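hiii so um. not sure if this is the right channel but i have a protein structure encoded as tokens and i wanna go backwards to a sequence. like what aa goes where. can anyone help
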């Protein structure tokens, strides 16, 4: 290539000289040629990508956004899933790519035939061979244009307008309906339903518990008041075009004052007024990864709010850093950037709320951040692709306070000690590796969430992405005093349903589990007897559930 370039340069320079050119011309000819060669190389790669019409590109861009960006990145540089750059995908070819999209991979990518038609999958196979195009940026001014305060603070009630036990409400995300159904945890009756918008991902409670904050995949954040006669959206805002996380200020003296949204695209976080959602500050997360390489898309994954100091803790996914964002002075934000591991995804607190433990799911590690000393204290090797959700805290009969995670890549619960003072020998070391492979013929991979409660003796786990039908229709449960013995309970026979995500009521006596399906349900299980108490039917694609007391207090 270098030789061809040199020959072309000489020929082109001579050509310019013939036309009476100078040394300046020679230099500019080299530049022109360099651009020309890059253009030729790019267009030859593009020439090999299959042709697509504008309408097909538009439709595939939407499909990619809906199903693929989470794992492969908006710019297709890869994260939990591999990179999908044309350099690689063109060589793989449309048919191979179609097969992968259709069937999935042993590495954990699901097959998409139940969500996409053959035509859509074929278009996607062609689409990922085109050059990625960056979606537009969003400024604070753009955001403000979408900002609405539906109910001004002065018009909101100063005490609850109903006599229900709102601290035991359960907010249930109905993902594909774009709604939140709120149920009374005491009576199992619906309190109300609100429109939360496209593919709502999670809810978080304000420090007082009065408001739910919902975040949609499309970056829309909504604030839901639980003190009104029916749940009411009091403020809304679009912070970006893709997001997964939101939290509020929980430190003493800052309760309900501020909120923060973490975005996937553009890669930034936004600080908001905690009562009105007015966007106050946007901070880009673009920059360098742990090894010093520039990354154009380090996305914000999980966020937790410290109870120890006026700080939020942000997982900067592709960069591999945990950022501690001190919000005590929004006009001069202080950010501590702690080296962790790549790619950071979800994670939660230990029982004391001092240590935050994010999962670095592509290097099979859990990181331990001490938010009091503002430093990383450990990196723990666990199983393949840890995915804790916010994880679970319990007291092991032998090792004292522990935390655990399930894994997407293998059937395993990894358990490590979290009490460096009381149990120094087991702190930040894996003390148990509990086998889940007997859940079904495909082994135990594909778990997403692990949950317990301080008043419970049980640990509950799902198998949402397991390829075996019966396994992903089941929930696993283990008595924490009999580690290693798992019981599996099949909760549905709907062939299109997957069991996902567990949450306790405030008292810790019931576990609520979602049957993720168009004809979805919530199964409420008595935690002590492990028997099904009741089923809430008529829910559209229920996924995450968030009890007010547990979410405001980070109890799990
Ligand atoms: Fe999630 C939490 C991102 C797929 C349901 N999900 C999170 C968090 C992140 C995240 C960063 C942590 C938020 C926090 O704590 O602040 N999730 C992603 C993805 O990037 C991914 C892999 C692909 C995507 O495109 O979204 C993804 N997640 C899913 C699902 O397929 C699930 C099962 C259904 C859905 O909504 O798409 C799902 N994610 C959840 C739930 C939580 C969550 C229920 C909250 C768990 C909790 O208890 O806190």
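sure thing!! here u go:
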């Amino acid at each position: 290539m270098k030789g061809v370039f040199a020959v072309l340069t000489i020929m082109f320079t001579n050509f310019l000289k013939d036309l009476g050119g100078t040394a300046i011309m020679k230099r500019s000819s080299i530049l022109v040629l360099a651009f020309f060669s890059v253009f030729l190389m790019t267009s030859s790669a593009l020439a090999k990508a299959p042709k697509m019409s504008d309408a097909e590109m538009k439709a595939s861009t939407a499909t990619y956004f809906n199903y693929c960006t989470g794992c492969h990145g908006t710019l297709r540089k890869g994260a939990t899933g591999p990179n999908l750059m044309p350099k690689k995908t063109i060589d793989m070819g449309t048919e191979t790519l179609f097969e992968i999209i259709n069937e999935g991979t042993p590495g954990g990518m699901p097959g998409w035939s139940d969500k996409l038609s053959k035509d859509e999958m074929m278009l996607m196979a062609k689409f990922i061979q085109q050059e990625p195009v960056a979606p537009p940026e969003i400024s604070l001014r753009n955001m403000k244009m979408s900002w609405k305060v539906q109910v001004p603070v002065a018009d909101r009630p100063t005490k609850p307008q109903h006599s229900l036990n709102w601290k035991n409400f359960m907010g249930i995300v109905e993902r594909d309906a774009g709604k939140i159904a709120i149920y009374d945890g005491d009576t199992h009756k619906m309190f109300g339903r609100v429109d939360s918008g496209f593919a709502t991902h999670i809810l978080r409670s304000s420090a007082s518990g009065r408001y739910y904050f919902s975040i949609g995949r499309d970056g829309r954040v909504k604030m839901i008041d639980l003190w009104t006669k029916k749940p009411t959206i009091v403020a809304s805002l679009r912070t970006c075009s893709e997001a997964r996380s939101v939290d509020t200020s929980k430190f003493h003296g800052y309760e309900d004052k501020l909120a923060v949204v973490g975005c996937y695209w553009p890669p930034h976080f936004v600080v908001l007024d905690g009562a009105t959602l007015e966007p106050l500050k946007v901070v880009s997360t673009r920059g360098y990864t742990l090894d010093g390489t520039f990354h154009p898309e380090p996305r914000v994954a999980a966020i937790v709010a410290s109870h120890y100091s006026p700080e939020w803790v942000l997982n900067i996914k592709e960069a591999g850093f945990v950022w501690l964002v001190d919000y005590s002075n929004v006009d001069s934000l202080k950010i501590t950037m702690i080296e962790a591991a790549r790619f950071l995804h979800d994670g939660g607190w230990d029982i004391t709320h001092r240590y935050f433990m994010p999962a670095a799911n592509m290097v099979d590690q859990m990181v331990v951040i001490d938010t009091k000393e503002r430093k990383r204290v450990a990196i723990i090797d666990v199983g393949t692709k840890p995915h804790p959700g916010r994880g679970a805290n319990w007291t092991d009969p032998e090792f004292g306070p522990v935390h655990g995670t399930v894994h997407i890549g293998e059937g395993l619960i990894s358990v490590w000690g979290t009490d460096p003072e009381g149990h120094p020998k087991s702190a930040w070391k894996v003390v148990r590796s509990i086998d889940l492979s007997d859940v079904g013929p495909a082994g135990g991979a594909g778990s997403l969430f692990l949950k317990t409660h301080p008043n419970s003796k049980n640990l509950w786990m799902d198998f949402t992405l397991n390829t075996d039908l019966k396994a992903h229709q089941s929930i696993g449960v283990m008595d924490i005093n009999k580690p290693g013995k798992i019981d599996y309970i099949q909760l549905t026979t709907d062939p299109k349903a997957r069991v996902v995500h567990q949450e306790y009521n405030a008292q810790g006596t019931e576990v609520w589990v979602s049957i993720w399906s168009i004809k979805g349900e919530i199964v409420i299980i008595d935690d002590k007897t492990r028997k099904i108490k009741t089923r809430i039917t008529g829910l559209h694609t229920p996924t995450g559930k968030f009890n007010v007391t547990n979410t405001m207090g980070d109890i799990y």
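oh and The CA atoms of residues 47 and 130 lie 10 Å apart.
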